[in-house]
Amino acid sequence: MPDSIEIEIGHQSADVVSLPAEATSPPVEIASPPAEVASPPAEVASPKPRRAARAKRVAEPTPESVPAPKPRARKPHTDAHTEDADVQVTPPHVDTFAEDVDVRIAGTGVPKLTPAAAYWDVHPSDSLHEVELEVRNNTSQQPSQATVMGHVAAGLIDLIGENMRRMTEEQVEKARELLRGTDLNDYLEPGFWRGIGMVLQYQVQEQVDFIKRRLRGEYEVDPYGMDIEMIEVVRPFLAFMYRTWWRVESHGLEHVPAEGRALLVSNHSGVLPWDGAMITTAVSADHPVRPDRIVRSLHLHWFSTLPFVAPALAATGQVPGLPENAVRLLENDELVCVFPEGLKGVGKLYKDRYKLARFGRGGFVQAALRARAPIVPVAVVGAEEIYPMFYNAESFAKLLGFPYFPLTPFFPWLGLLGTIPLPTRWSITFCPPISTEEYGPRAADDPLTVLALAERVRDTIQETIDLRLAERTSLF
Amino acid sequence: MSTVLINGIGSAIGAQVARQISTHDEVTVLGIARCEPPAPVGRAEWLVAHLNGVQLTELLQAEHVDTLIHLDFAGADAPVEGHEVAVQQNVIGTMEILGACAAAGVSHVVVRSHIGIYGANPKNPTILNESRPVARSGLSGLLRDLAEVEHFLAEFALKHPELSVAILRFAPIVGGWSPLIEYFAQPSPRIIMGFDPSMQVLHIDDAVDAIVRAALSPCAGAFNFAADDAVCISQAIRLSGQQPTSTFESMIGLSASVGDRTKLRPWPFDISFLRHSCVVDTRRAKDVLGWSPVHRAVDSIRTARQNGRASDDPAVSEAAMRAFLSRKG
Fold first, then answer.
1. Residue A302: its chain B contacts at CB < 8 A?
2. B7-64 pLDDT, tens digit each
3. Residue pair A375/A263 in contact by the 8 Å Cβ criterion
4. For A440-469, what is the mean pLDDT?
């Protein structure tokens, strides 16, 4: 058993997963140990008997078997005398949870430990995610019955973290209050389960309140019908499609402005407009500066005549694709996404994949010129294979009043199952923006300028698609 | 010194407009009503009458009226009595009034209208401004009458440049009796399955403010008026204290006509408004008239639940009494 570190903060004691002397690779967030760590009086104490005993009982982890767990103080600083808390550190590497957090947020090396905020960082769900990983890590070293418990514990922490993303500052504070004094890594302790139980109960309560509030009509929509709360509800599902199903790789997100208007112009494909949803998710999941930016996709106005589809599209912030809507949204400094291929794009046959269809009549360029918004060409690769449509049953489509009726190897033969998209691997590339500033106010009404710009955007997208296709090694 | 005549002072909104304009000392306020005004009308002098064009011309000339506010539309402030009567009053009545104004040398006419005249159409931009043409089809009842009136007014204004005609297109007005709230507050109001368009409403106080501003400033053309926030129809129903029932389109009219008429209320607009949104841009009213809505749609609907009737809640009654006493004092 290598030496354990024990950290005493105020009256509470926290024990840290035993840190083998060899496992000293510092976590990536920390370039150098913060200066503050050295200043409080540090002393090394002997491991707590109970903890030591348990560690022996459970695992006897050898230095090799422990994959560099991050040692952390896991107790909140609840007391005023945090300052003179005894922080015990083992050289050569020092890493307490709070410092880790502070360095990660501030990045300036001025970690300030306010007693209340020391436990979790700006977004507690992120630190909970770390805790979850750590618990999972540790669990894999444990014998079987503890493993099950550890997995359950990790799952619960994950669930809480996920829920917390949707909570308000107040609710997070409440959960934080409930978890105070609970050692989140120590799932063999009754205190852990009590704390987790209280938070779960609180979160269920909040969800019930959420539904009740919805039933009373107490929420807000914008004039287009966008409902932020509904976006939050579908976000985990879209994130799953983004990360796990299609394993989307996004490039060039820095070309999407963090502030102000921009018109994203993308190729369109895939029978159902999943590509729009994934562009939205790419910005909300991976944008370096403003992950909360909502992309307003313009959809074919025909979709607003479809029951269930229309309100769902509206609630998630999508807007009927009419020129007036595009200009108005851009003038409100929104991020607007258009698919100039329109129907010709979504209804593309498999054999025509990645051949851009005609870009309409350049209406999107007119909108950008009117609103003086930069155009960001976007190339989506992978979406064109999700529903390999080999035939468009046009006469049947006409009968149903649909713009197209796809026949794929799975649809309509497998019914609803046939609407599950193939899990191809995607990449989304945001190209450098094309400025429209230099064009005068009359340019929008000059067909030559408009068509030339449209062609330029189309070429950029086609080139980028070809590039990504050449890089691609496998469809899946 | 100017003289304003309010046609339709007998409605709640007309009475409020009269009271508001009365606070401007330099303005003389007159009113024509179909019934006695339900609320105090300030300094306004009014008569209960149903004047034809010739009689109205005589009145306008005798009183040197320079501004006429036309609010008197059947079905807007009270349940409509019959289709033919309504068309007679709304369309023919407005034509007569405009003719009388031109003949009597009135310089400014303010006519109320409704944002529903744009129609609910998936091909309309989601947010409509005043340049959107009035729908030529797909409307019925009051909205059809108003659309017809608007077509007439547009033509009339072209032919009579000496007369400035302001058209105020209001979102459904709440506060006081409103057919919309009546529909929302009935037991399980019906909406079309799979559709939940957004809509706007306008609090009656904001509508009154709009009319007063339009009457006292030399403006012309159409203006949209609505609260700054929009609500989904299902949300509006929930705010009215009910839960919506999704049903097939054909059932909506049917259940109101064969069901229990004492409880079930008909949807006051065309069915298409339950399917597609009709939301307007109020920028022009804000820029030109300096108008700005005070009430949010969410709050207006929530407080309009009672639809003009007294509430059972003692706290609400208490507040109403305090407001009354402070107004008196």
1. 122
2. 999 988 999 999 999 999 999 999 999 888 888 888 999 999 889 999 999 999 999 9
3. yes
4. 91
Sign of CA dihedral A98, A99, A100, A102: positive
Residues of B in contact with A308 (CB under 8 A): 194
Confidence at residue B307, expressed as pLDDT on a 0 to 100 scale: 60
Q: Is the pLDDT of residue A70 over 90?
A: no
Q: Say yes or no for a CB contact (<8 Å) between A215 and B125.
A: no
B233 interfaces chain A, CB cutoff of 8 Å: no
CA-based torsion, B235, B239, B240, B244: positive or negative:
positive
pLDDT at position A196 over 90: no
Decide if pLDDT at B141 tops 70. Answer: yes
* Mean of the per-residue pLDDT values of chain B: 89
A223/B127 touch (CB, cutoff 8 Å), yes or no: yes
Q: Angle at the Cα of A463 (from A457 to A469), degrees rounded to 5?
A: 135
pLDDT at A144: 66
- Helix A323-331 and helix A363-371: axis angle, to 10°? 30
Query: Does the CB of B230 have a partner CB in chain A at under 8 Å?
Result: yes
Task: Say how far apart CA B96 and CA B77 lie, in whole Å.
Answer: 21
Query: Across the interface, do B197 and A311 touch by the CB < 8 Å criterion?
Result: yes
Asked if A324 and B125 come within 8 Å (Cβ–Cβ), the reply is: yes
Counting beta carbons within 10 angstroms of the beta carbon of residue A447, is it exposed (0 to 12), middle (13 to 18) or buried (19 or more)?
exposed
Chain B residue at shortest CA distance from A225 = B198
Tell me the three state secondary structure of residue A166. Answer: coil
- The ipTM estimated for the assembled molecules is 0.84
Nearest CB to A301: which of B122, B238, B239?
B122
For residues B25 and B27, give the distance between their C-alpha atoms in angstroms, rounded to a whole number.
Answer: 5
Chosen from A301, A309, A316, A370 to mutate, greatest number of chain B CBs within 10 A: A301
Gap between the Cα atoms of B157 and A165, Å rounded: 57
Of A219, A306, A322, the CB nearest to B235: A219
Residue A335 backbone zone (phi > 0: left; psi -120 to 50: alpha; other: beta): beta
N- to C-terminal Cα distance for chain A? 45
- The residues with which B111 forms a beta bridge, in sequence order, are B70, B167
Structure tokens at B27: 């303005």
- Closest alpha carbon to B29 in B63, B71, B62: B63
Alpha carbons A289 and A283: distance in angstroms, whole number: 10
Confidence of residue A24 (pLDDT cuts 50, 70, 90): very low
- Partner residue facing A221 (CB), from B192, B231, B240: B231
pLDDT at A284: 87
CB under 8 Å, gap of 24 or more: what pairs does A110-118 form? A111/A34, A111/A36, A113/A36, A113/A77, A113/A82, A115/A76, A115/A77, A115/A78, A115/A79, A115/A80, A115/A82, A116/A76, A116/A77, A118/A76, A118/A77, A118/A82
Q: Is B243 on the interface with A (CB under 8 A)?
A: yes
Q: Please report the residues numbered 75 through 114 in chain B whose beta carbons come closer than 8 angstroms to any beta carbon of chain A.
A: none
Q: What is the maximum span of chain A, computed from C-alpha positions, in angstroms?
A: 82
Contact between A294 and A273 (Cβ < 8 Å): no
Torsion angle (degrees, nearest 10) of CA A410, A414, A418, A423: -70
- Residue B309's CB is within 10 A of a number of other CB atoms, namely 9
Per-residue pLDDT reduced to its tens digit, A293-312: 899 999 888 888 888 888 98
Q: Is B152 on the interface with A (CB under 8 A)?
A: no
